[in-house]
Amino acid sequence: MNKSEIDNFLKKTRIATLVTLNPDGSPNALPLWYEWDSKILRMFSSYETGKIRRLTQDNRACVSVHDPVGVAEAWVTIEGKVELKNAGGRELALKLVPIYYSDKKKISETLDVWSKKSDWILLELTPTRILSWQS
Description:
Pnp Oxidase, Chain A, 7 strands
């Protein structure tokens, strides 16, 4: 994919798989919501999670985003370093709720609970390498 195709692909609502490194160097992968602005991939989390502990120790990470089975193969993988920021995590979380959920009741309930949380952190992955494929 070219830059424009990558941007268009990543701006669609998909689940990303974030891969961080355990202390022994082994990978740890988990799904996350994200936002892409053509330069930085942003995610959010609570402070007290394994991914934040791992990224505090080693901020190298990789994110993979792909289409589901049954459609033409397409994927983007971003490698880089994650910067953890105290500001912006809550705002991103609340912004993404109505994008990732379609059920109005689920949106309302989630916004109500998440808006009261105070332990958000913003994760910004700045790419050092982007790989992609589209069949």
